[in-house]
Amino acid sequence: MNKTKLLLLALAGLFAASCVADVAPDQTISAEALAAKKFVNTPDAAVEGELIIYVDEATAQQLETAQVATRSGVMPLDNLALEVGATSLQPVFNLQVNGDVKRARGMHRWYTLSFPAETDLQAVAQKLSMMDVVERVQFSTKIERPEVQTIEADPATVAATRGEDLPFNDPMLSKQWHYRNLGLPETYPGAKEGADINLFPAWEITTGRRDVIVAVVDEGVCYTHEDLKDNMWVNKAEQSGAAGVDDDNNGYIDDIYGVNFVTYTYKEGNKATELKEGYSDHGTHVAGTVAAVNNNGIGVSGVAGGTGNGDGVRLMSCQTFHELPETDPLYNSSAWPSGTDTCASRAFQYAADNGAAIANCSWGYPGKYMSDSVFTPQNSSVRKSIDYFTKYGGGDVLEGGIVIFAAGNAKLDYPSYPGAYRDYICVTAMSCDYTPAYYTNHGPGSTLAAPGGDYLQKYYTDYTGEYNSSVYSTRYTMGANYGYMQGTSMA
């Protein structure tokens, strides 16, 4: 071997040794640094007293068979539960339906730890991240319903616009300009004909299908509303079964029309479908636009509300947050539970398991801008749940579910996440004159625009219609069953 080759080999050896020396410290990386890598997200806008964890396989099996989850025999978790006064350690996902598929996707390893709200959230999160049995730690981010303008109005006090032949006999159909906009000054002096969703020609093709279920992932839907009750999805086994019993063995008690995921807790016997006046106004308004019963001689029409012959789409109430009336003593109180990542995660998997084809979502994450490059690697329970819906939702009509989000009402040049993610449909709002609504989020991540209403059109001083340019639909609140709202939720 000549001297040149020997020199090259020696240099190569030195280079290799230097590389080994450079990577060696990674093998002794500090426990704190390793723990930091377990965090799925930041504590921004996190709810107090709740953390979501992803445990290893052995721990998941032990927790699943534990009689009391906070005394499971998994010593690190049990000790921490005792230290922080944990009230529960519950699975995020329900394994009684499609359990084998969920286990194959690792969904059985997600748990929510609940503890007193005054406990230091980040300190608990740090302790969880230091445990070998915990692979991920997720702050349970609050989800927000976009702010909307709400105007009470009853059909008896709202004059119908220009008597004419219409497809259905619902008296307020003529007020729903967002279906067919004739450019009438009663709507708004600047209204432009055709600034609508062109629904009447679509109705000549279909007015809805009974085998399509739309999950309203929102506030609850008023299932007793006169204009919605006949188009509600109904769990027949629970409806005809015994009160307080999980009659269909699907993990939920009395889930007749869906589940209130804000207040429902597993294994405690509380009713899954809960309806309280004032807590379901926004969800009921959205539901009316989707599927108020058509041609029943009352109220409004729905986009897919059928013909009055029991042929509209069905509405499943998947309540993920509450909106309290100002008269409620808990209004503006941090003690009132609202929407969180846990609620949203459970809602999507429930919708998929019970045959929903479409998930209509009027919420998003508050705060700073995100991007697909940030959202994609987040192995969060919400992301996994939506992926589950898009894969296994669809019921009998689609191979996988469709997820639709409101873009948000913060006047930003980007829509909120998760809606802005490339795999979901994200809807911005326009006014009745083809212009963007003053409040709408827009920009990259938006998929399409639809009429969302814009009551600020009333800046015309000679205009007395005021709110006619907002969206008229069903409501559930004190004193009114119908009313105007505006927002990307309406779009």
How would you describe what is shown here?
- This protein is an alpha/beta fold.
- It is built from twelve helices and 14 strands.
- The chain has helices spanning 3-23, 31-36, 57-65, 75-84, 99-104, 121-129, 199-203, 236-239, 281-291, 341-353, 372-375, 381-392; strands at 46-55, 88-91, 110-114, 134-141, 149-152, 213-218, 258-260, 314-319, 358-361, 402-406, 425-430, 448-451, 471-477, 480-486.
- The strands form three sheets. Strands 7-8-6-9-10-11-12 form a seven-stranded parallel beta sheet, with helices on both faces. It has a four-stranded antiparallel beta sheet with strand order 2-3-1-4. Strands 5-14-13 form a three-stranded antiparallel beta sheet, covered by helices on one side.
- Helix 9 links the parallel strand 7 and strand 8.
- The longest helix is centred in the first third of the chain and has 21 residues, at 3-23.
- The chain is globular, with a radius of gyration of 26 Å.
- The termini are far apart.
- Mean pLDDT is 84; it is low at 1-28, 333-337 and 458-465.
Describe, in short, the structure shown.
It is built from twelve helices and 14 strands. With 491 residues, the protein is of the alpha/beta class.
Our estimate of the beta-strand percent is: 15-25%
Query: H/E element string?
Result: HHEHHEHEHEEHEHEHEHEHHEEEEE
Helix-residue proportion: 10-25%
**Distance between the first and last residues' Cα:** 78 Å
Based on the structure, what is the oligomeric state of the protein chains? single chain
Number of strands: 14
The total count of helices amounts to 12
What's the alpha carbon Rg, rounded to whole Å?
A: 26 Å
Q: Major sheet: size, sense and barrel closure?
A: 7 strands, parallel
Gross geometry: globular
Overall mean pLDDT stands at 84
User: Strands of the largest sheet, in order across it?
Assistant: 7-8-6-9-10-11-12
Which structural class should the secondary elements be placed in?
alpha/beta
Extract low-pLDDT stretches. Answer: 1-28, 333-337, 458-465
